[in-house]
Design a protein that fits this description.
The protein is an alpha/beta fold and 435 residues long. It has helices at residues 5-12, 52-57, 80-94, 108-119, 137-143, 163-171, 186-189, 192-199, 219-222, 276-289, 294-301, 331-343, 364-377, 401-408, 427-433; strands spanning 3-4, 15-17, 22-23, 26-27, 38-39, 62-65, 73-76, 99-103, 125-127, 151-155, 175-178, 211-215, 231-235, 242-248, 254-260, 263-268, 312-315, 321-324, 350-354, 381-385, 395-396, 415-419. Helix content is 31%, strand content 21%. It has a 6-stranded parallel beta sheet with strand order 9-10-8-11-12-13, with helices on both faces. Strands 17-18-22-19-20-21 form a 6-stranded mixed beta sheet, covered by helices on one side. The protein has a 5-stranded mixed beta sheet with strand order 2-7-6-5-4.
């Protein structure tokens, strides 16, 4: 989006000082400053105001501030976080292109990536980077949308009840997607009902002419459907957009027949994992609801590129097959990754290096034990990393994982899975073993 500094001052009720500038991008991270952008210093563990000089030296055209302005063009505001929200909302209402909002307990980023690929068959798409899905990432996504965009795709995450409602007031999606509802962040939410109700908040902001894309296989999702006046389109085994004749190649990439109210189509995904079929159906439903031809939807799904650290199947030391799914973890995504490991056509050992699943509250202990049991039922060895929550298993430190693997004398017939919540840092281990 393009704003002048005068317009930014008006939207934020701020005080402009310095030369008028035209702004076409915004960031809160001084390391990501580009020439001509707006720098927004936020206050959290660190005070972003200490990086204003650095941002200016890197070419920032202007900056927000809660303090006495320094040199350059500035807009002084009462609160920079509030101003960011105001600017995001203004950017949304300055746009006249269809907006897709995607929420859910798991699969948000993958569905966002797939929706991006599908809608790209029809025009320019601006989508959230990686997992920019909170009160900072969402307004930045809106602010950084190029003027030539034909679609906006916004990922929306939540840490507590009311979060999706607040983001929806900013995004006002035309199409709202709920990928699924499972036990995730239960330490904060407290219950599955609370998670379900929070995800359902997106539906109340959909226009009557819009569309709710809902996972028909999940009762907790469908229970939210009365909260919208919009048209509904379901996906999943019980949905209107569904998959049949699912098969996997040696790299776990699915192919299937997609059946829809608009006809049937052969789909071949270029991403790995059984759980990606449901994600693909959600993205397909968005495209079909937008009026894309079935063949365009199929073509888009064949060109998906996922965000990093999600079901990356690569070659490791001594030719081993490695599944790097280290972005994050909860019981549902853990079991899905373990299922994928079990499907690999390797005739040697299959070993899962599993770390902590964070923020599960009182269900933490049982959730880890259930994941271990699931792996054992599939004949998969589990090695715990930095946690004893998986029970009576070998526990290794993060810095000794590489030595552990080297001592196993694995080869091309063996396969490894690495998965944990991001706080564990397991992705750093994968860097050491990938060729």
């Amino acid at each position: 989006m393009e704003f002048t500094t005068s317009q930014i001052a008006h939207v934020t009720s701020g005080e402009l000082k310095g030369e008028e500038k035209v702004i076409q991008a915004a960031t809160q991270d001084s390391r990501k400053v580009t020439p001509g952008c707006l720098f927004i210093p936020l206050i959290s563990e660190r005070d972003g105001h200490t990086y204003i000089d650095e941002a200016l030296s890197l070419g920032a055209a202007a900056y927000l501030t809660e303090q006495e302005p320094k040199e350059g063009t500035s807009i002084r505001v009462e609160n920079t976080a509030t101003a960011l929200t105001q600017l995001g909302k203004s950017a949304r209402f300055s746009s006249h292109v269809p907006v897709v909002g995607i929420t859910g307990s798991v699969g948000k980023t993958s569905v966002k990536d797939m929706t991006n690929a599908v809608l790209s068959q029809q025009g320019e798409v601006h989508a959230s980077l990686n997992s920019y899905n909170n009160e900072i990432g969402v307004p930045l996504t809106l602010l950084n949308a190029p003027e030539k965009s034909s679609f906006l795709v916004v990922e929306m995450g939540a840490r507590k009840e009311g979060d999706i409602e607040e983001l929806s007031k900013m995004v006002y999606p035309d199409i709202g997607v709920i990928t699924t509802v499972v036990e995730s962040h239960t330490e904060v939410f407290g219950s599955l009902d609370s998670i379900s109700n929070t995800k359902g908040e997106i539906l109340e902001r959909l226009p009557s002419e819009g569309c709710a894309v809902l996972n028909a296989d999940v009762d907790e999702v469908m229970r939210q459907s009365p909260r919208t006046r919009a048209h509904k389109l379901t996906f999943g085994q019980l949905g209107e957009v569904r998959a049949s004749s699912v098969e996997f190649d040696k790299n776990l990439k699915p192919s299937f027949v997609m059946e829809t109210p608009w006809g049937r189509s052969e789909i071949k995904l270029n991403v790995a994992g059984e759980h990606m079929v449901s994600n693909a159906l959600a993205a397909a439903a968005v495209g079909l609801a937008m009026g894309l031809p079935l063949e365009s939807v199929a073509e888009g799904l064949s060109r998906v590129e996922l965000s990093p650290l999600r079901m990356e199947i690569v070659t490791g030391l001594n030719g081993t097959t490695v599944i790097n799914d280290t972005y994050n973890a909860n019981p549902t995504s853990m079991k899905a990754a373990i299922d994928s490991l079990s499907l690999l056509p390797c005739n040697g050992r299959k070993i899962a290096f599993l770390g902590l699943m964070a923020e599960l509250g009182e269900k933490t202990s049982m959730a880890h034990i259930e994941v271990k049991r699931h792996a054992e039922e599939l004949g998969i060895e589990v090695i715990a990393v930095e946690t004893e929550l998986y029970g009576d298993l070998r526990v290794v430190n993060l810095d000794s994982v590489l030595n552990e693997i080297e001592g196993m004398r694995l080869d091309k017939n063996d396969a490894l899975l690495f998965k944990a919540s991001r706080v564990v840092g397991l992705e750093e281990v994968v860097k050491e073993i990938v060729i």
